[in-house]
Amino acid sequence: MTNPVILTGDRATGPLHLGHFAGTLKNRVALQDTHEQYLLIADLQALTDHADRTGLVRGAVLEIALDYLAVGIDPDRTVICLQSGLPALAELALLYLNLVTVSRLERIPTIREEIASRGFGRAVPAGFLCYPAAQAADITGFRAGLVPVGADQAPLIELTNELVRRVNALAGAPILPETRALIPEAGRLPAPDGRGKMSKSAGTALPLSAAPDRISAFVRSMHTDPGHLRVSDPGRVEGNVVFAYLDAFDPDRAEVARLKDRYRAGGLGDGVIKRRLEELLQELIRPIRDRRATLAADPAQVLGLIRRGTELARERTRETRDLVYRSLRVGSG
Ligand code: TRP
């Protein structure tokens, strides 16, 4: 068995942050050693709720590519490509829209939550409601078998597999592979105040280009245990933001376990755990920030990389479209 092809992507709405790093970027860097991997910068999907801010979307494309490269994505091993340069994905999406019902799309939990949180009310853009079908086109267009995404995207993978089965039934042959979500075990990072998850739209994100003083302020603002007033008081580890981050980033698991014991027993101050975390985050982000700054000095080179990746991806996605069209007797080919 050869390894499945990987496709994953990011909506082009702004630079990526520490939550993306913990959730999926780290996995992607590791997977490029063993898998054929494509990263899709989803600029058309970004228009599903940014149609009036197209300039922002274009700017975000470069930011995201810089983030990829800065964390260690190697363009010789991972293909970085741009959704709007891959018309075959849009063609597949248009086909899939006829294989899914509006009520099925409305039932997707991710969509319901996003509609509520974006405050569309009854004015939901049709493109927004339909983006899960377009995302199924992204995944199947690359004939991907593995999709590293956050837990919130799992229902979209389910829809993708429903569409795969529909297409294969219509084709009378398994022309498209079913796919699997690769969801990080740790779950999403909390916001520093512990209310909700780290998110750019909520203003709680730490960018991967954060300067040292921003990192310090971020850690300082973290909530610990409100009942832990004196160092000698026993403290709670569950729901404690600093420990959630130590769990995500501290490679010394044994030391974290010891710190938790001491914190629970009383006698360990918040300052100690915050200092440890701050040091870790400064060490983690410094090289990313430096590499990003170097790469950002030559945007033409980065845009050239995206162009070359998009050409490779165009080939692959066209093949899929041709296969699907031929098998479903669409067109004249
Ligand atoms: N929906 C994803 C996000 O919001 C971006 C995305 C677009 C994607 N197409 C994809 C993710 C295909 C995985 C596979 O970040």
Characterise the protein shown here:
- It contains 13 helices and five strands.
- It starts with 5 loop residues before the first strand and ends in a 5-residue tail after the last helix.
- The protein is globular, with a radius of gyration of 22 Å.
- β4 (146-148), α8 and β5 form a beta-alpha-beta unit.
- The mean pLDDT is 95.
- The protein is mainly alpha-helical.
- It has helices at 18-31, 43-50, 54-71, 87-96, 102-107, 109-118, 126-141, 154-171, 212-220, 241-249, 253-265, 270-296, 299-328; strands at residues 6-11, 37-42, 78-82, 146-148, 180-182.
- α4 (87-96) packs across α13 (299-328).
- The protein has a three-stranded parallel beta sheet with strand order 1-2-3. Strands 4-5 form a two-stranded parallel ribbon.
- It binds tryptophan.
- Tryptophan (TRP) binds next to β1, β2 and α7.
Bound molecules: tryptophan
Beta-strand portion reads 5-15%
**SS-based class:** mainly alpha
**H/E element sequence:** EHEHHEHHHHEHEHHHHH
Radius of gyration over all CA atoms, rounded: 22 Å
- Mean pLDDT, as a whole number? 95
**Helix percentage range:** 55-70%
How would you name the oligomeric state of the polypeptide chains in this document? single chain
Strand order of the largest sheet: 1-2-3
Could you name the ranges where pLDDT drops below 50 across 5 or more consecutive residues?
Answer: none
Could you give a short account of the major beta sheet? 3 strands, parallel
Short summary of the structure?
This protein is mainly α and 333 residues long.
Feature tags:
mainly alpha, binds tryptophan, 333 residues, two-stranded parallel ribbon
